[in-house]
Design a protein that fits this description.
Layout lengths: L1 H15 L2 E4 L4 E4 L2 E3 L4 H15 L1 H24 L7 H5 L1 H8 L4 E10 L4 E9 L2 H10 L8 H15 L3 E7 L8 E7 L6 H5 L7 H24 L9 H14 L5 E4 L6 H10 L8 E5 L8 H6 L16 H4 L4 E5 L6 H13 L1 E3 L6 E3 L3 E6 L3 H6 L5 H8 L2 E3 L10 H16 L8 H9 L5 H15 L8 H4 L9 E5 L5 E5 H13 L4 H15 L4 H8 L3 H13 L10 H4 L2 H4 L1
Parallel strand pairs: 8-13, 8-14, 9-10, 10-13
Antiparallel strand pairs: 1-2, 2-3, 4-5, 5-7, 6-7, 11-12, 15-16
The chain binds zinc ion.
Length: 581
């Protein structure tokens, strides 16, 4: 031991002389190697983040390999030392550098080596271990040794020095509660558990695994997205929805032009895609165009294509959406916004089945099924002279009215469940569904933005609800001034109105007190529905989730038996123009 100490003392000076701080260039040199003076605390923070993000085992591997690389560099320096030094003197470079670099105070206790014979044994005492100290600081006492970077260094240094794999193990470690760390090193073959230790030296391609997983996620997400376009997404059991969907299915077999009507957000594009997917054209393109989103002056070139030089700026010939949809389906949303000149061209395409690009004399045959959609009243636009009547009649030949969500309340639970499944998958979140209160709020909210609004609300709920819980009312609705979802309640005039829960409570109280009878409540519901539907009994029935014969029967029963003279005769509801259409 005295011999080891004296070896250390004589060589240390020479190593210190090889460290140069170049303040001018901002470089620190250890002989020929650039070094860094890094804050131990920052290094420890990186170590902690590696552990927290990758887990102990993976972090241990990374840190061990980092130390190994450092040890190998220092072994290069050992070789540059005086050629007349003994194996032992040369070997001492490692422990001395480890100490000089501020990692740990390394004191060899016993070293036996013969570079020619390849034999090696070392026991080294480690004091003030940087790694052991910070590991305990962040994670407390550990059951196993924790000086991974340092063990990596010792292995890297000695293996490079000896020219054969030398494995070190910590037999004591401050991270485990010992006063200092103690390491033993010998050739890898002499360890019984070598394989267990050596795995930390082999880099595993975590990047490849991550990319692999990422690809799988993208595929899963896109397949979830694709389902959006498929008919399964068109979900509903309500009579209003079924009627519309049956019409759609019947149109799928033919090439008839279809006009989809409905409020914003009712799912017109989903309907159009569904028509395409269930038709013989499903293998060909589905091209969707929102006429309101294209600047008026560009609509024609977008739809019908353009020949080079047709107008300033037309530097290249390019096909329009009609050509791109050839063989498939072209969906024109917001068709009421189409400029009149484009309307004339569209009519000609529908009649002749051919198009002319802008600035081109040549006609091209195209085979496209057109699906148009609007939330405007085209008839009104015709009257105002903003929409060509001949095009209107052409489009109107097969009209499908998609009911707003408030008229198909029975579908809300199905749709909400569907969107919940989709968005929990997209956001990778596990939720247990909706609270009862949230379910009631979904049913009572009027959904002016229709299905799109419902989908947005559910997505919002998925994002805001903590994992493992249920979505609550406050997760679904951005701002509800009364802090309660709106409900049907008794309004000021005594009629039913969209109101808050409290009013609904008043209504229940009124029934319990005998101030109102059940028949009166039913009559109010029926009349409100008929009013809202402007006398259209089928539509009123849809709002209430019952059939037309059921509503007719109930109205007759309520009014037929009582002497309410100012109630119009039941028959008058049937004579509205919309009903007979
Ligand atoms: Zn240790």
């Amino acid at each position: 031991m005295t011999k080891l100490r004296s070896v250390g003392r004589t060589t240390n000076e020479d190593l210190r002389a090889r460290v140069h701080f170049c303040a001018d260039t901002g470089q620190i040199w250890l002989h020929e190697h650039r070094m860094l003076l890094v804050h131990a605390e920052a290094q420890a923070a990186l170590r902690k983040e590696l552990i927290d993000t990758l887990g102990m085992d993976r972090a241990r591997g990374l840190l061990t390999r980092m130390g190994y690389a450092s040890g190998v560099r220092d072994a290069e320096l050992a070789r540059t030392r005086a050629e007349d030094s003994t194996d032992l003197e040369a070997f001492m470079t490692g422990p001395q550098l480890h100490t000089l670099e501020g990692i740990v105070r390394a004191t060899p206790v016993k070293v036996e080596l013969d570079r020619h014979a390849g034999t090696f044994y070392a026991e080294i005492l480690w004091e003030h271990s940087w790694e052991g100290q910070w590991h305990r600081h962040h994670y407390g006492m550990h059951s196993e040794p924790v000086c991974w970077t340092q063990i990596g260094y010792a292995c890297g240094y000695t293996s490079a020095f000896m020219g054969r794999t030398i494995l070190y193990k910590e037999v004591e470690c401050t991270g485990m509660g010992h006063n200092s760390c103690r390491i033993i090193g010998k050739p890898v073959e002499e360890w019984d558990d070598a394989a267990e230790q050596m795995r930390y030296f082999n880099s595993e391609s975590i990047a490849e695994q991550l990319i692999d997983l990422q690809t799988q996620v993208v595929q899963l997400r896109s397949s979830i997205g694709d389902r959006d376009q498929l008919p399964e997404d068109v979900t509903g059991i309500s009579p209003g929805f079924r009627a519309a969907y049956d019409l759609l299915k019947q149109a799928a077999g033919s090439n008839i032009t279809v006009l989809l009507q409905g409020e914003t957000g009712v799912g017109k594009e989903v309907f159009a895609r569904s028509l395409h997917e269930t038709s013989a054209r499903r293998e060909k393109p589905f091209v969707a165009v929102n006429c309101a989103a294209i600047p008026q002056e560009l609509v024609e070139s977008e739809l019908f294509g353009v020949e080079k030089g047709a107008f300033t700026g037309a530097l290249m010939s390019r096909p329009g959406r009609f050509e791109r949809a050839d063989g498939g389906t072209l969906f024109l949303d917001e068709i009421g916004d189409l400029p009149t000149s484009a309307q004339a061209k569209l009519l000609r395409v529908l009649q002749e089945g051919e198009i002319e690009r802008l600035g081109d004399q040549k006609t091209r045959k195209i085979n496209v099924r057109l699906v148009a959609a609007t939330n405007a009243n085209l008839q009104d636009l015709v009257k105002e002279g903003r929409f060509r009547s001949d095009l209107y009649y052409r489009l109107n030949a097969y009209q499908i009215l998609i009911p707003p969500l408030r008229e198909r309340k029975q579908d809300i639970p199905l749709l909400a469940k569907h969107f919940l499944a989709r968005h929990t998958a997209i956001h990778g979140k596990k939720l247990r569904g909706f609270t009862d209160k949230a379910k009631r709020a979904l049913l009572s909210y009027p959904w002016p933005g229709n299905i799109r609004e419902l989908q947005n609300a559910v997505e919002r709920g998925v994002i805001l609800a903590p994992g493992g819980t249920r979505i609550e009312v406050s997760h679904l609705f951005m701002s509800c001034s009364e802090e309660q979802p709106p409900e049907f309640g008794l309004g000021n005039g005594g009629g039913l109105d969209v109101n808050c829960w409290e009013t609904g409570k008043d209504l229940r109280e009124a029934v319990f007190n005998g101030a109102l009878t059940l028949d009166q409540v039913e009559a109010m519901l029926l009349e409100t529905a008929v009013d809202k539907a402007r006398g259209n009994l089928s539509s009123a029935a849809r709002m209430l989730g019952i059939t037309r014969p059921q509503i007719a029967y109930r109205l007759k029963r309520l009014h037929g038996g009582t002497e309410v003279s100012d109630t119009p005769p039941i028959g008058s509801f049937d004579k509205t123009p919309t009903e007979s259409a």
